[in-house]
Amino acid sequence: MDNSLKIENLTVEVGGRVILEDLNLEISPGSTLVLFGPNGSGKSTLIKAIMGFENYAITHGKIVFGGEVINGLSTDERAKKGIGVLFQNPPKIRGIKLRQMVELVTRRPAQEDIFVDKLNVGELMDRDLNVNFSGGEMKRSELLQVLSQRPKLLLLDEPESGVDIENIAMMGRVLNAFIREHAVASLIITHTGYVLDYVDAQHACVLMDRDIRCYDDPRKVFEDIRQFGYEKCRTCRGQ
Ligand SMILES: Nc1ncnc2c1ncn2[C@@H]1O[C@H](COP(=O)(O)OP(=O)(O)OP(=O)(O)O)[C@@H](O)[C@H]1O
């Protein structure tokens, strides 16, 4: 199964401003790429462009998923092809229970989904989606919605933000097992690097000045950022 992601010479504009320029990256099946980068550098924009969000205009380049150019597909069509996203700030929806959302996207009874237990979200299933959920509950609820769809490509925007240490460990192990078992290609945005303790990531890179830099081993990239800051990435092109 080809569930690789290939991004070729991608330029993305938001509100007439170039956020990403001539960006290239590739994630092969079963491989995890960790994406670092300063605030506002365009990491979430990259995920939104891959998902085909309105207002994130691709003015140049190609997004290739599973060997198919998906630039022309709607967000819905991209999700149906197997691209799953965990957003940084998911919406709160009154009147729709978490259970209903899972059943809507999977068309299966939610209680049958193994991730309800694995992610310990049983008590959230009959509450309005994300309404008054704690930060950690919201991330677990979002992860349930994503994994219940059994995606082929996972795009995770700061999965550990607002999550306590024990829940980071639990979510990280669940994620890693899913990625390994299904040979899912994955892109994980992180500021803290905690996720590296649980997910076997093969590569990392830094997004800044509209492009990818410092493509290397995740722990090495993270240590360099901690030691030298993002400023050093300006002069480093990695491997
Ligand atoms: N819909 C939008 N309208 C206007 N500007 C936007 C929009 N989305 C993103 N931007 C701008 O694009 C730039 C990149 O934002 P983005 O959210 O991609 O950064 P990020 O790297 O994910 O940041 P952070 O680490 O703070 O989450 C920012 O200057 C942001 O204000």
Automatic annotation (TrEMBL):
Q: Which GO terms describe its molecular function?
A: ATP binding; ATP hydrolysis activity
Any one Pfam family match given in the protein's UniProt record, by short name: ABC_tran
InterPro entries linked to this entry: AAA+_ATPase, ABC_transporter-like_ATP-bd, FeS-cluster_ATPase_SufC, P-loop_NTPase
* Annotated ABC transporter domain residues: 5-234
Q: Which Gene3D superfamilies does the record cross-reference, listed alphabetically?
A: P-loop containing nucleotide triphosphate hydrolases
Q: Which UniProt keywords apply?
A: ATP-binding, Nucleotide-binding
| Protein family according to the UniProt entry | Belongs to the ABC transporter superfamily. Ycf16 family.
Q: What is this protein called?
A: ABC transporter ATP-binding protein
Q: Which organism is it from?
A: Velamenicoccus archaeovorus
